[in-house]
Amino acid sequence: MRNVHRLEKCHRWARALCVRPPAVGAAIMAALVAGAAVLCAVPAAAAPAGDVPQHPGTGMAISPPRLVVPAGQVTKVQRLEIENRGSVPLHLHVELSAFEEASDVSTVLRASAPYSAVRWIKVVPGNLLIMPGTKRFVQVRIHVPARAEPGDHYVEIIFMAPPVAGRGNIHIAEGLGVPVLITVPGPVIDNVRVTRLTADRFSAGGAVLITATLHESGDVHHSFRGAGERLTAVADGSRLLFPPFTVLRGTTVSVSTRWDNPPAVCVCHITVSVVTDGHRSDASVTVVIFPVAKAIGGAAALTGLSLAFLFASRRMRSRGRRGGQARWGRAASLPPAKASALLYHESRRSRPPALSRSATHAGSGDEDKGHRLARFPWKFISRRPGGVRGAWPKGHRVTRDHARKQAIRARMAATGEPYSVAARALDAAAPVAPGPVAAESAPNPEPAADVESAPNPEPAADAEFAATPESIADAGAPADAERVADSAGALAAVIACASRTLTAPSARIEIRADTDLGRDPVPALRRRPGLLGRLTRRAAKAALGRVAPGTDPAEYGDLFLHQFGAGFIDLAGGRYLIDYGGWAQALVDGRRFSGLSGEPLGPRYENRPGRSRRDDPLDALGRLRSATAARWVGGDRVRWTTCRVAATTVGQAEYTVWIDGTRIQRFQTVERGSGRSARATKTETVELWDFGVPVDSLDWSRLPNFRTPR
To answer: In this structure, which long-range contacts are made by residues 648-654, counting pairs with CB atoms below 8 Å and at least 24 apart in sequence?
Structure first.
């Protein structure tokens, strides 16, 4: 059997090695290595001998490749059809073996295995001879014991051909195995679940490999074969089919498929679902696809174009400066009349259409400012600093020098002198007027009298804050004494309530953080973004629309500016769980964690020890016990409890505290900051209620997901 023909689509050969040591004569020992199922079915109906395809060497096919015996047919005799598709006779003998299913869905033969049915099967005939181009039928008789466990039992029927003697010491025995799946009648459960779905979390492009892990915990096998029964993954609207496979009883297998044509850019959610006996099992994974190489190439090309543009503009400016210097050098060696004529004719040369007057500030051509502006192909628009369009404000130096420029141009027309010569001559001849010049050069053109007469609202405030202790004592009014005593009582009440709150067993907690980005009525002038900035902004908008279509950036901005978290806090135990809806934080065993809601606690989500703890409610309550000043500011109702409100000072921070005489029901802090053109105010409110709620039944090993959609 040297020329072994392997069927293209129908079967695998299981091989066994037979070793003939030199000292041993004709003894041959055959060892069975593997047995596998035929991958595709051969028609079960018997065909005439002439219709059996023949190939040189050895060839064999068995139909059906898998023998599944349901509960209602265990007493019936089953039949297998064997075809000899080779050119040599087949001497076959039948062997039975137990088997197990490996994690990669392959079959592994065992001497003994759970749910084995080796003793239940009898194949008739046990030895048979099949001539080339013919077929034979064998019977499979099943005898189920009286007290057999309901559910699936398995056995492998192996048709082995003896090894053929050759020149060497190693001989190969060929065979073909057929798995038999027998279902014993009785109450059975099919409970297959998807336990895991894995894929690369980030892909730079190309095919994405998706792997699903399934476990059958029921009494029977589950087959993902045939139309409408195969396992399917849904990825970004596409349906991906897994290869056909079967999950045997009590086994866990992993199967993979490839997503060959994913989108170029997306945040893709891949889901696999399995429904058995009314139970649904789901698993999902998120894959971020972004073409890093293409993005880097595009950024490099854009950078190259920008650099080329800058280089070209600088080169044109440099050439204009060199041309102007050359003309002035030639004019300096000529008499004044000829120099003026030379410069006049140079300025009258044919050139591209001149720029607008607002861009060049030039006259009718008698003032030469070089080719720097005259030959630049784009039309400039006058702007104020910061990129604001429109006329320059009154008092700007360009407007103030307009009269001087008019005088210089008049002298140029009268004498024929160049602009710079006429300007120097005019400046040297102008008289110095102390009054007007001083007034014009002063940075503030308003009269001093107006400044002195302007109302100043600050002295009253200064006088209020400059009051001395003696002046307060001189007031001596009963209202002042009552206010001092009332402040002392508020401070003691706040400290006592903060201490009792920290020793309370547990409570529900809500945290609201609202940020107000108020802008100035007249914002500071900002420079309009250039070409690169505008292209970057458009690329970012396009990428956001492709990655998350239909997403409103303003909605995410509102979620960031107005955060709301809810959870439970164990005040006496020093721990809490707070969920903000997709993001959560926790304090367990003195360690702080923050991250995605529902994730297990671990080093990945643990906060660094030096990280700011301003948002920690337990730390805020502890700081209230060290308050330095407090005063009553009124009353309010928190949920169903009537409270007194106290404005409390803790170091440099200001707190507003709601207390019911026993515990703190609510406290609030306000942080303010200012920038160049905006002022930000962050108001954080922490509310406690339902003291004594049980918290031991909560899962303290994970970040909470009370507010996160599941």
So the answer is: 648/490, 648/491, 648/494, 648/624, 650/623, 650/624, 650/626, 651/623, 651/626, 653/623
Distance separating alpha carbons of residues 257 and 346, to the nearest angstrom: 76
Using omega within 30 degrees of 0 as the cis cutoff, is the peptide bond preceding 125 cis? yes
302 within some domain: no
Judgement on whether residues 178 and 205 belong to the same structural domain of the protein = no
**34-79 pLDDT, tens digit each:** 333 332 333 333 344 456 677 777 888 999 998 999 988 888 999 9
414 C-beta neighbours (distance < 10 Å), count: 9
* Residue 562, domain CATH: 2.50.20
**Tally of structural domains, the chain:** 4
Position 473 pLDDT exceeds 70? no
Q: Is residue 466 part of a domain?
A: no
Q: Do 208 and 161 fall into the same domain? A: no
236 DSSP β-pair partners: none
Same structural domain, 495 and 637: yes
Q: What is the mean pLDDT of the chain?
A: 74
User: What is the phi/psi pair of residue 309, to 5°?
Assistant: -65, -45
Helix (H) or strand (E) holding 19: strand 14-19
> Following DSSP, what letter does each residue of 545-593 receive, concatenated?
HHHSTT--HHHHHHHHHEEEEEEEEETTTTEEEEE-SSEEEEEETTEEE
The CA distance from 158 to 200, in Å, is 40
Last-in-domain residue among 149, 184, 219: 184
Side chain identity at residue 487, one-letter code: S
90, 178: one domain: yes
Is 622 part of any domain? yes
Q: What's the CA gap between 70 and 185, in Å, rounded?
A: 8
Separation of alpha carbons 631 and 649, rounded Å = 9
Residue 228, classed as helix, strand or coil, is coil
SS3 594: strand
What does pTM read for this prediction? 0.42
Do 217 and 363 lie in one domain? The reply is: no
Q: Could you read off the pLDDT of 490-508 as tens digits, one per residue?
A: 888 999 999 999 998 899 9
- Furthest C-alpha separation in the chain: 133
Distance separating alpha carbons of residues 327 and 493, to the nearest angstrom: 87
- 421, part of any domain: yes
Give the pLDDT band (50/70/90) at residue 343: low
Mean pLDDT of 443-463: 36
Residues linked to residue 199 through DSSP beta bridges, in sequence order: 210
Alpha-carbon distance of 266 to 235, in angstroms, equals 11
Span of 144-148, 446-450, 499-503 with lowest mean pLDDT: 446-450
Parent domain of 44: 14-184
Write down which residue in 290, 320, 347 finishes a domain. Answer: 290
Same domain, 124 and 227: no
Q: What is the pLDDT of residues 105-130, one digit of tens each?
A: 898 888 888 899 999 999 999 898 99
CA quadruple 451, 452, 454, 456: dihedral sign: positive
Q: How wide is the angle at C-alpha 11 spanned by C-alphas 6 and 13, nearest 5°?
A: 65
